[in-house]
Amino acid sequence: MSEKLSETESAFVSLHRTMVGQALNGNSASLVGLRQNAINTFANVGLPARKSEAWKYTNINAVLTKELAARLSFDTHKVKPRLVNESLIPGLDSPFVVVNNGVLDLDSSNLSNLPNGVVVTTLQDAAEKHRSVFDSHFGKYVNETEGLAVLNTAFVHGGLFVFVPKGIEVAETLQVVHVVSSTESSFIQPRTLFVVEEAASLSVIERLVSATDSATVSNRVIETYTGKSSRLSIIRVQDENVDSSTVTSLYSVQERDSYVYDLTLSLSGKLIRNNLNFRHLDSHCETHLNGFFIGRGDNQIDNHSIVDHAMPDCYSNETFKGVLYDNSTGVFNGKVLVRRDAQRTNAYQSNRSIVVSDSAHMYSKPELEIYADDVKCSHGATTGRLEPESMFYLQSRGLSEERARALLLGAFAREVVESVANPVVREYLTDELNRRVL
Amino acid sequence: MYPGAIVDSERRLNLNKRNNRYFKLEIDFSALPPFNDMDETKYLQSVADSEYEYGFVTEIDADTAPKGLSEDTVRLISSKKGEPEWMLDWRLRAFRHWQKLAEKEAYPRWAHLDYPDIDFQDVSYYSAPNSKPKYESLDEVDPELLRTFDRLGISLQEQKRLTGVAVDIVMDSVSVATTFKDELEKQGIIFCSFGEAIEKHPELVKKYIGSVVPYSDNFYACLNSAVFSDGSFCYIPEGVRCPMELSTYFRINEAGTGQFERTLIVAEKGSYVSYLEGCTAPMRDENQLHAAVVEIIAMEDAEVKYSTIQNWYPGDKNGKGGIYNFVTKRGICEGDNAKISWTQLETGSSITWKYPSVILKGDNTTGEFYSVAFTKNKQQADTGTKMIHLGKNSSSTIISKGISAGESNNSYRGLVKINKKAQGARNFSQCDSLLLGDRCGAHTFPYIEIDNSTAQVEHEATTSKVGEDQIFYCNSRGIGEAEAVKLIVNGFCKEILAELPMEFAVEAQKLLAIELEGSVG
């Protein structure tokens, strides 16, 4: 509870006050109420404090400057079709949507192949036309103590809403292209809600790209609900320009017998922070979360995950890997929380990083917090450079040093994407990582 | 240290030692304790069932400072101890810094511990046995005091005869008897109370005090620096291999007095010392605050092995009245090839906050941390280590075993930091947790910070309960469930206990067995 608001914080609170009368974010009563509650909560919790344990290694205040509120933007700029086309996975030929500065742009999207009943629309539209679904899920999974997440709710606008009703299995991968189109260094807050009802399935690949060279800041929130016996797979490729910063807060909840797959590839950006939260609402859930990050220049990638085993008989498997060049910094803070009576939990967590340069930094903090006894939980973390013996072996067989390194790093990265179910996507990502990891 | 067990182990040891001096080399740890020995089992059972029987108060007049902490308290402590000006100055500097910290309420709150705020003005900061004795022989010692030691199982007579261990007894912070001093003196080894060191070796104390743990290090270290009552000082000259294990027993005695021990160990170039520390404390309703500081300096090629068994009063079944144990322990491998090794068995205290650390400053230095932490009832432990690699090719090993039972919480918190200049540094960490019961918690919070690409750092941790198949295996061989759990826990901790010096290893195994009696099933 912050008694005194910082300049940035009070700027947001007063901005909210001036905007509340405007219809900018839609007129749905529930949305307006949520936004009001959110700004009140924000006034209490504030932005992440520099000294808080969760932000120990990432100086988010370098990004959350006092001009931030003034830079908050709802504008969208025309996105060139070429950028969209380049962002789609070649050969996948599946439905895609374009989200421009956080607002769904249906005109640039192609949803023709989606099964009947599946809804892809903006959050405002959902609040009006799919009210019961919207009301029972939107804003329900966000951690109210996370200042950035409630800030997103307070100014929620446009956004993306994807709803897969009971029993529908979406065979094709839905591609989401998130374009940051602002021409100046603006602040955007995209918001996404995925609802997959009972016995349904959905796979999504999100690609974050910049249409600009400006140093933009995005504060993204994704909420996902995976219903009973259903499957949800989300792949996020973070590939914005090297000056842009992104905080992504994912809140995933799962019902009984459900399956969630989440993969985060952080390829480019100045400061990337991922807050990945997974919670089990019922037993027999399965959660896979994977990530790969590449650090270059002065950039920083901070992956912060919590798998909350609140129910018995669930399974989770977490693998985060990374390669750090130049002066880059990698952070991994993963927590496996096994609550009291979440018996027979099986959780694994691993973090492996390769530090290439002497001025790169890696901070790893894999945590286990366990309150039940009949569990199998383990974690492992390794940090080091490429094995000199392996390099020597390959070189002694006639490979150049570059080629040997490429081979080893490619193999190191491949493990993370091997778990991707769709072969086209898997191949594409493998190639992409092979190319980018060097 | 669980006194009952000590008497027993000592008796046996003495017997064996008399018969065979090299008994310790032949012992098979896995054979201890004998599980089918009915008498022993009965004895252990009776000890486990009983309340903490050592919770008695020795009725000796103690010189106790009034409660509360102010500059006057610091001056009082210093003058009571007849300290020189420079020592008082240092204390006062620490106190002023502490005041600032206290004003800001800069208590370390990051640990996974839950306890009410401590009222630092409600603690008495000094207590010393009334007749400050400097005895040459035990006959001169207050008989009441001797009886206390007898009940604790630390029989001085026995100890004196026990070759290989010199004992510096600290009773409520003031050293009352030191044995084996003469023998050590011959080699130039200084092993005495901190007070005596200030008096006789001021240049050494001045040079090294606060050099590893500065008074500004953290809240509790700062408090200790201002009000430390006494402690031990140990100096091993160049090239000397200390011929015996140095050991100190701490005991909190006075009701409501905190104990603020300070230990300083300096190992000069090429020397070696193995240092032991163990504790018991009487039963108390009021929470007792303990904030100790241990500093170790190992010069080039020196090796220091520090072992401790901590078994202070953990509070009753509801966690009431246990010791609050906030300890800052740190060693520095100052010269090349130096080695510091921490081994600990933590079974006591209601709150344990303790991170024995090593700063690996020299090249090719080695740091080790071996720990078993056992918590039951409502005990809470947040313990681990910090390995700070500065020198080239420095290496560190961390092996931590946590066992939680009852409603206790047991956390490992460790930092491995590889500095930019620490080329070729190497670390291996392993943290295993064992859960005995479904109301307890086991947590792992490792921090791994790498600033050098040549570092090779590995960390692994597991959490599990005692396997049903393991129990079944034992059962099918006629070993009952409670015995089986003891056997398995002992196996779980074996690699740590094997690091303890012989006398401690025996005690440690017994202690664990006794602790388990009350918490299984």
Name the poorly predicted regions of chain A.
Answer: none
User: In one word, what is the shape of chain A?
Assistant: globular
Major interchain interface with per-chain residue totals: A-B, 36 and 35 residues
Estimated share of beta-strand residues of chain A: 35-45%
Oligomer kind: heterodimer
Major sheet size, sense and barrel closure of chain A: 10 strands, mixed
Radius of gyration of chain A: 21 Å
| Structural category of chain A | alpha/beta
Quick one: biggest sheet of chain B? 10 strands, mixed
Q: Based on helices, strands and strand pairing, what is the structural class of chain B?
A: alpha/beta
Gyration radius of chain B, in Å: 22 Å
Helices and strands of chain A, in order, run as HHHHEEEHHHEEEEEEEEEEEEEEEEEHHH
Total helices of chain A: the number is 10
Residue ranges of chain B: pLDDT <50 for 5 or more in a row? 1-38, 130-135, 157-178, 250-257, 280-285
Mean pLDDT of chain A: 89
Describe the strand arrangement of the main beta sheet of chain A, using strand numbers: 2-1-5-8-10-12-14-16-18-20
Spatial order of the strands in the main sheet of chain B?
Answer: 4-3-7-9-11-13-16-19-21-23
Q: How far from one another are the termini of chain B?
A: 24 Å
Shape of chain B: globular
Could you walk me through the main structural features you see in this protein, from its secondary elements to its overall organization?
The complex is a heterodimer of chains A (438) and B (521). Chain A has 10 helices and 20 strands. Chain A has 438 residues and is α/β, with parallel strands linked by helices. Chain A folds into 2 domains: 7-282, no CATH class; 389-438, no CATH class. In chain A, strands 2-1-5-8-10-12-14-16-18-20 form a 10-stranded mixed β-sheet, covered by helices on one side. Chain A is globular and about 70 Å long. The mean pLDDT of chain A is 89. Chain B is of the alpha/beta class and 521 residues long. Chain B is 29% helix and 32% strand. Chain B has a 10-stranded mixed β-sheet with strand order 4-3-7-9-11-13-16-19-21-23. A 6-stranded parallel barrel of chain B has the order 12-14-17-20-18-15. The two termini of chain B are 24 Å apart. Strand 19 of chain A pairs antiparallel with strand 22 (441-450) of chain B.
